[in-house]
């Protein structure tokens, strides 16, 4: 279990204080299963409404943060997300990961890919894939033109809505090696960045969506199958 691995850090003298700080970020009142989770937290979980804390400078390159980043990447890929914020696995820290692979092009028509300005994310140094890992990220809007497209969220499973987002942003922060990174993102990647930054501020897309467009993503299947449709929150 992920939480057992995190707790294991506290058995060492050098890492004990950081591990205790890490675990104090959440409060479990139920079962022993605690964050960081191997699943995505769902709307209603208080962690999604908290303003996430900054990662202390001395902890940025710590084994605990590296472990958390890898846990986020694992969950993001497990649930086929294009981005994930730390609160989405139960940890209220300002960390996000993003990944938009070129193979996703096959899931969209060429016209949709073009109009939504989709593109692979820039290659992050040290990683053999198109991925962004940012600790204590900051976002600056560089193009205030807004465009509305349909968004979904792994933390609001089974629903979607149109959300207006700025066309271009500047995203900056630290990578897991403590090095400063700065990315100019436009179109769909700018949308992903804004979506994940919202999570770090306790904002969910339902707060900023066009409410009339909010819909169950599988409503047609519900009708076709006489209501016998289940939404799974776990993925093997």
From TrEMBL:
GO terms for biological process: translation. It comes from the Eukaryota. InterPro entries: Peptide_deformylase, Peptide_deformylase_sf. It catalyses: N-terminal N-formyl-L-methionyl-[peptide] + H2O = N-terminal L-methionyl-[peptide] + formate. CDD domains: Pep_deformylase. GO terms for cellular component: mitochondrion. Its EC number is 3.5.1.88. Transmembrane segments: none annotated. Pfam families: Pep_deformylase (PF01327). Keywords: Hydrolase, Metal-binding, Protein biosynthesis. One of its GO terms (molecular function) is peptide deformylase activity. Belongs to the polypeptide deformylase family. Removes the formyl group from the N-terminal Met of newly synthesized proteins. This is Peptide deformylase.
